[in-house]
Amino acid sequence: MKTFKPRLIILTLLFLIINGCVVKSLFPFYTSNSVVFEKKFLGNWVDTENAKWNIQPFQEVILKENKKTSPSELDDDQFAMYNKFKKGYVVYFEKDSTKSSFLAMAFKINNQLFLDVTPIEDSEFDGLKNDLYKLHLIGTHTLAKFDLLNDNEIDIKWFSSDKLEELLKENRIKIKHEKVGFWDTIVLTASSEELEKFIKKYMDSKDEDKWKTDVEFNLTRVND
Hints:
Elements: H1 13-19, E1 24-25, E2 43-47, E3 52-57, H2 58-65, H3 76-84, E4 89-95, E5 98-109, E6 112-122, H4 123-126, H5 131-134, E7 141-150, E8 153-158, H6 161-169, E9 177-180, E10 185-188, H7 192-204, E11 216-221
Parallel strand pairs: 1-10
Antiparallel strand pairs: 1-7, 2-3, 2-11, 3-4, 4-5, 5-6, 6-7, 7-8, 8-11, 9-10
């Protein structure tokens, strides 16, 4: 991740499991108008499975990784990336000696915080020698409901793909999507604007199980 060069990536076993259970999209779930920066998300955390989470501002990370002190010192590509994700976070995730990093963008709809998460780098993938396999992989956007319970506790619930499939089968929602790959994985193809409209409508629904999910993380802050 030293230069944040775009790359095709695969995730750790844990995130592969997550990625099979959560809703995926080709486009971000947010637009520039809904993006927020929440300082309380920063810092070191541990979840109930003893995995470690280190959250840092994207702007600081990209300067540090490129050994620069000012954005004006970045090359054109890096400067564009700096500005594009200037309100984002880099999430360093470590479990069982396996390390991954993700870009997280916080955004707010109807006073509810959400996270749009995309992968950046994975230690196991970097060691994968099957280049042909790598060529067929692409990172997607996933959506999580993000609740700051207090200064020292966070709850993150990913939008369940099972729930989405149920809604589509029952014709309770209409949103652009395709089934792709060997497993017929549902991937949303709607624009970011359409995705935001969907989230607003979904949040207003009376479905009590709308955020029922198998992919939930409860984080507790630890000393830096």
